[in-house]
Design a protein that fits this description.
This protein has 415 residues and is an alpha+beta fold. It contains five helices and 21 strands. Among the domains are: 85 residues, conserved putative lor/sdh protein from methanococcus maripaludis s2 fold, CATH 2.40.420; 102 residues, Efflux pump adaptor protein, beta barrel domain (Elongation Factor Tu (Ef-tu), domain 3, Beta Barrel); 74 residues, Orthogonal Bundle (Helix Hairpins). One of its GO terms (molecular function) is transmembrane transporter activity. It comes from Pararobbsia alpina.
Length: 415
């Protein structure tokens, strides 16, 4: 490059354009040279973005389905009066456990004792009448043999004996009825369970109709747990089973775990023992029931719990961490890394959550690599620096996800 004095001499020697002062022409000619001398050096290229990746694998993944459920007594009995009368007193403590045969209420027995006495008197009368008819028949039989009386007299004597025998049988029945009615004045518990409050107070007149409801007894061991499955959920899971994407356990033997309101897990595991064969016309749901051992009576009827149904397996499932899936304008997507360590955006279809992972139903193939950490800073078709690989979740660690299973019973998935 020429020195500035030499440039100045050359410019002075050049002819200036017409009507342009020579000094202005020289300044315009020197301006590009000055700019070129003061131009800064080019900035270095930024380093590749550091990311962690994971390789896509397909594997059978155990899953659990969680939904809201409610406990129910496996045997709830309404204690009712079986005869009409006055209630003398309650002899149990409300809200306490009662045992089989324990007396709960006492009714006034005096009217029933009197009725029993009357029935016994009627029986004695009929038995005396039967004795007389038998003696008469015994006297008539030899007289007929001697032709002292007619055959009709013998037939009448035998008929009166049969009538007397029938009257005795009826009187015995009346005595039994009176004895039963008297026994019904002592009202006992037919099972072991938790007692409810007394619906009738001492001195109330109760009948064997609706007003005869005295209390309720709830059996606590075993305990039932009811939950419902919507028709859409059931059809969806059944379709996945038919396509081989979801597998239920042998004989649909699901295992159920309860999570209580405070987050603690109930120690006993339950099994599904009943599924209603019809959908509810009011809610469009399918009722399923599980049974739990409750030896310490910690579960009570009417509790709201979360039921986790385990035993299903997603076949050849693809799981990716939730942080690797980004939300686009219209769909979810991930960054797929090619062999040149460049990222390309890929639209995926997500399924249910599985703990910290997400099931991917469409969009990824086994063997591909996706960005896990650093995906928010990735630019398409830009080289990446892979600094680590994310470890997949162990297959033996099922985590709740999704909604209730379509079957939940021994006869749902097969249909």
């Amino acid at each position: 490059m020429k020195q500035l004095p030499q440039l100045r001499d050359d410019l002075n020697a050049m002819p200036a354009p017409r009507d342009v002062p020579r000094w202005l022409f020289a300044m315009c000619a020197l301006m590009p040279v000055c700019v070129a001398c003061n131009k800064p050096a080019a900035l270095p290229a930024p380093p590749p973005m550091e990311v962690t990746v994971m390789q896509i694998t397909q594997r059978d993944t155990p899953v659990e389905f969680e939904f809201t459920a409610q406990t129910q007594s496996s045997r709830e009995v309404e204690i009712r009066a079986r005869v009409d009368g006055f209630l003398d007193r309650r002899v149990y403590t409300e809200g306490q456990m009662v045992h089989v045969g324990q007396t709960l209420f006492l009714m006034d027995p005096k009217p029933f004792e009197a009725a029993l006495q009357t029935a016994k008197g009627e029986l004695a009368q009929q038995q005396a009448r039967l004795g007389v008819t038998k003696e008469n028949l015994a006297r008539v039989i030899p007289l007929v043999a001697q032709n002292a009386v007619s055959q009709k007299d013998l037939d009448d004597a035998r008929g009166r004996e049969k009538e007397a025998e029938a009257a005795v049988i009826a009187a015995k029945g009346q005595v039994q009825v009176a004895q039963l009615n008297l026994s019904y004045t002592t009202i006992k518990s037919p099972l072991k369970g938790l007692s409810s409050f007394a619906r009738q107070q001492d001195g109330s007149y109760v009948t064997a109709s609706a007003t005869g409801w005295l209390t309720s007894i709830y059996q606590l061991d075993p305990m039932w747990v009811n939950f419902s499955i919507s028709e859409n959920e059931m059809l969806g899971y059944r379709d996945q089973v038919n396509k081989g994407r979801l597998r239920f356990p042998a004989n649909n033997d699901f295992e159920v775990t309860l999570v209580l309101a405070d987050g603690t897990v109930f120690p006993s595991r339950g099994r599904i023992n009943f599924a209603n064969p019809a959908f509810s016309s009011e809610t469009g749901t399918f009722l399923v029931r599980a049974v739990f051992a409750n030896p310490d009576d910690s579960l009570r009827p009417g509790q709201f719990v979360r039921a986790r149904v385990a035993g299903a397996v997603r076949v050849n499932a693809i799981l990716v961490p939730q942080r690797a899936v980004l939300q686009g304008a219209k769909s979810h997507f991930v960054w797929v890394v090619d062999n040149n360590s460049k990222a390309h955006q890929r639209v995926v279809e997500t399924g249910e959550w599985h703990g910290d992972d997400w099931f991917i139903t469409q969009g990824l193939q086994a063997g591909e690599r996706i960005v896990v950490d650093g995906s928010l800073r990735v630019v398409a078709d830009t080289p990446l620096k892979i600094v680590g690989a994310a470890a997949p979740r162990p297959v033996s660690e099922p985590t709740p996800g999704g909604t209730a299973p379509a079957s939940g019973s021994s006869n749902v998935a097969a249909n």
